[in-house]
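Posting for a labmate who doesn't have an account.
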Amino acid sequence: MNPNPNPAADAARLAFLLGELRLPTIKYLWPDIAVQSDKNGWPAARFLSALAEHEVADRERRRIERHLLDARLPIGKSLDNFDFNAVPVISKAHITALATGNAWIETGANCLVFGPAGVGKSHLAAAIGRALIEVGYRVLFTRTTDLVQRLQIARQELTLETAITKLDRYHLIILDDISYVTKDQAETSVLFELISRRYEHRSILITANQAFGEWNKIFPDQAMTLAAVDRLVHHATILEMNVESYRRRTAIERKKAPGGPTTRQSPKASS
């Protein structure tokens, strides 16, 4: 025991050691929790457990924040604000199960979401991605054309293999709007290489306006089209959102509403 206790020096040394150990939450909270521990007569194990629980919880919060930023998800898209009533062909229970990831992410399976423009495909994909991040997976959301362009540049710089390998750190890549990729040999060949590399290894979620029968407009020849589709659907959940466009329906409802865009007001009334 230190015969000459110096609380200030002990506290300063503890702060230094906690910093060295990279325990910022404990470094910040220990004085308040120590007061509570002394007041209530906690045993040492309870005091240490309380500190550790705060550190673990805060570390998880920081991880989620960091991975959400890295994922580049559209802002504000979650399962909580997805209108399942507008898409009755989609089961909320099924989507909730997909959002846990255990049954398909761990085996490198895929998810394919089809439907016309404006039905919420991108929202649903982003919401699933957000939920997966919250349970511990890493996700990347990207427009397919943007990622294809990045991979094309990597091929030109002879670093395509490295670029695709770096994408392996993501348990799930969400390729939004694959139908907008142009039918060009250079573009679709790098897309095909990405699909082939992740086959039965890492998961892909694709949103598309066009069903498989129209994918010959994406890939330059039938053989590549069939090979890509075969790899994507071999272990896949397919969601078809063949309903009226949410954006179109909302626009019509606004026009019908009193004071909507078609309602004219006099200059005096609008001033």
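Reply:
Got it, the structure tokens are right above this. The longest strand covers residues 203-208.
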